[in-house]
Give the backbone structure.
Amino acid sequence: MDENSSKQIPENVEDPPNSRLFVVTSRSITEEDLRESFSPFGEIQGIWVLKDKQTKESKGVSYVKFAKSSQACLAMEEMHGKVVVDETKPIKVFIAQSRSSTRHRDVEDEELTRIFVMIPKTFTEEDLQNTFKEYGDIEYCVIIKNKFTGESKGLGYVRYYKPSQAALAIENCDKTYRAILAEPRSKVSTADEYSGGGGGGGGGGNRGGDYMSGADSMNQYSYPMADPSGNYSLMDYRSSDITRCLMMSTRAALTQEQIFALFDLIPGMEYCELQRDAYGMSKGHALIRYSNLGSAVYAKEKLNGFEYPPGNRLAVNFVDDGEDRSSPVGRMAMQFVASQMMSSVWNGPSTSQGMKQPMAFSGVSPMSRVQTDVSLPPLKKLAPPESKTKERLFVVFSPSPLPQDILEDVFCRFGSLIEVHLVPGRKVGYMKYAEKQCADDAMAALHGRIVNGVKMKVLLADPPREESHKRPRTY
């Protein structure tokens, strides 16, 4: 941000949090254009178009400040990728981070959709869902329990499908729930027990010291610890135990969506979450919980050792779910369920406990080198290298770029692909097409899709500049 722009922006832009948008546009887009496009979503408190200090021309970057976080989130969801003025490129809209940060959060960011609440200890997960479902569609609810007693700690999570829904819940729910956006687990202490109540923290602002440390560690489960060889061992786990909770470990970069779809093939899944580090990257394992022992046993037997994608063998193990099965009756019930499910596993599923059909990732054959959640057209030949480029696509990869041959395999299927270019040292690349329609078809089919465990954002690339006063890079 240049000096002139920073002087224009007041100090209260972070109040409330996540109420300011970072917008990337064409340089011809004006403040009036932005105001007209974004005003339907709520009260706009300010718009700042960043301009070059020398030329006074727009840099193609703007900030839009709303009165409420829910308004900003809704605007982001609705306006990202939209064309504001005819014959200009689609705009990109993100939630702006604090002014000291360089990172921006987008509509798919998990940190914007999961809220953390204080609830009565008598609440069940059904009570929690019924209380918060009026604000939007809920993906899952979790109540934090003491791993030794199984009793509720009076804390819980609610995960929505959209950031605007989570923001509405925080703004409008009863203040006694003290709802806030949940911090990533890796940012808080892993203290074993909830220290409870009073303390000094007070207030509704920074509540990390109040009670987040015990709750956000999700300490009712036993987590795997990785050794240098890449193997995982479970803490506090006895091999004879069978529980409703599973821990899946993977060496490949699988996404939350892929893991959810894989384990949701077995009926009864009520919770699934990929564990992430402080930077939002996958830790290589996910926690899955089922509503009954039978489904958990079946899932472990079917998916432990399963290769997805081909060459990546999943490891699935039981972990402590906090339930006491030490009594003779509890142990007998567990053994009965296990024996029944083992019989079903080895003799083939014949009841509703069997895996759902068809398989979630049916777009390719099981042994194909390309695993994706979209049905792809047949392979087509590359366009001649000397072909004139009519359109370029800009692709962002998460968590890491795909190999060039895989990208050619995927993007050539829409026809007229000239070449694939990956930017060294960055998680981005360009696809050059000889025909604009082919590029448009590829973007429509592949944007937001997952290929071999990598999620892709596929956008139209900015046209190359014919001239520039800037000194060319020499690397």
Summary: Confidence is low (pLDDT under 50) at residues 1-7, 186-240, 342-367. The chain has four domains: 3-105, 110-195+208-216, 241-347, 391-460. The first helix runs from residue 3 to 8.
